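tool_call: predict_structure(chain=1)
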Amino acid sequence: MKKQLIMNQFGDEIQVAIVEDGRLAELLVERPDSSRSVGDIYLGRVQKVVEGLQAAFVDIGQASDGFLHFSDVGTTGEDYRSMVNEDFDEEDEDDVEDDEAPTQVDNTRLQAPRATPMPPVANGQAATTAETKADARREKRQSYTQMIAGKLKPNDSLLVQVIKEPIGTKGSRLTSDITIAGRFMVLLPFGEGHIAVSKRIMNRRERKRLKTIVRSMLPKTFGAIVRTVAEEQDEVSLKTDLEILLNKWKQIEEAVKTAKPPKLIFKEDTITASAMRDFLTEDVTEIVTNSPQIHREALAYVRWAAPEMEKKIQLYRGRLPLFESYGIAKDVESIFSRKVWLKSGGYLIIEHTEAMVVIDVNSGRYAAKREQEENSLRTNLEAAKEIARQLRMRDIGGIIVVDFIDLLDERNARKVLETMKSELRRDRAKSNVLPMSDFGIMQITRERIRPSLMQRMGDECPACGGTGVIQTQRTTMHQIERWLRKYAIQTKRPFSRLELRLSPTVLEPMMKEEMKPQLKWFLQHLVFVNIKADDTLRSDDFRFFRARTGEDITQEYSAL
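tool_result:
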């Protein structure tokens, strides 16, 4: 696979594109008004503890309080917050599932109580033993929850890290299991000697070598996760990376001593630095940017981390825009499109709702060219590959429901499932896929750590309010008349004076009617209405004010 890393700077916006085989696979965007916060470390203040939710709300200086679930409360780190007074045995974990997104690593596993092996039992005793163990686990979880709830108190200071950015009205998701990502490893300041190695490093000897090297140089109270790119690296490179991470932690310790919550203690690397750190692998064939500053930073980084890749870094000086020159400008623009065409002539419809994203697969003009089952299978397989790409490219997370074309043969449905799973393995974000139902529905969950690109790069439509449908002018007129009828009945004040403001698109056809609306409403309700156009109002909205006081009374007598 041909893989390129393209970093485009336009004004104060930076876009980093990961291109695979000439097509956009992922797009990272950073603007001054929407800078990334995943990985940032704060000294926060506990606002409230809700034991029913098993969570605490922590003020970190953002618009909404951060959400700290009890499962994300570390069981070490007594230097900063003595939360837990009893020890838990660490799970003997030797590897991690995904090291390419280090700030997303689920460190709660590292402090999980070790499961006690189940002794052999007779068949008649199996159910009873399982129930007993389940009850024991529930009691242990409840005990742990009560312990955490008892230790976390409002106004307490707490060192936390953002693991999921604010989405809508929800605040950031937080953890107190701090991690600091480097090129070859992720430092766990409260890891207590735990060393894990990425599962993607298959060679047992290499895994053992890396663990031995890291253990020999790691301070006792720290832990580490060895990343995939550390494979075959020498001890000097690993030591240099570790020293950089330890220096960062030392700066955090110094900052905490004088900080008063809420306070940002540590800012994660810039988007370009983190992209170089996370995406710079052996299969990258080209790194190009149109910014001289980013070019210098990339050269400096590569000379330390991967000197053999220095020749792959280029400064773009072409006349065409960078994305246009590399043929991905249309892919970027397609992020806002509901409709995505497939090569076969079929297409996808992608709809965002409050609770989930719904994707409909349609066969299009290709349907009549082959047998139905064969056509449906081919279109579904092509759609599965494109859906996986769209999820990555648009950074869609949460629940995704896909309505595939119906298949009669279960073997074909399994082929679609396996294709979807195979394509999602390229994705850094964790996902889970359920088999296709009898109705052709496939359910997917994808890790969501920030709003989707459509949410970050777009605004809600002022005309339709995000629904995609505009109310007809006639419907708005009827709503105004119902409002006046209700007002006249409830107030019983003849000859009162009101001011009506509405969109010019509704006012213009209203004034063209045979009888002027002011006269009609006076004859019907004995109310004087002065009508004014307001460009700020949508076509489905209107406002009534008292003429003398200017008081907005729209909601008071709403008939909607």
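agent: The chain has four domains: 3-34+269-329, 41-113+139-266, 337-457, 473-546. Proceeding to next step.
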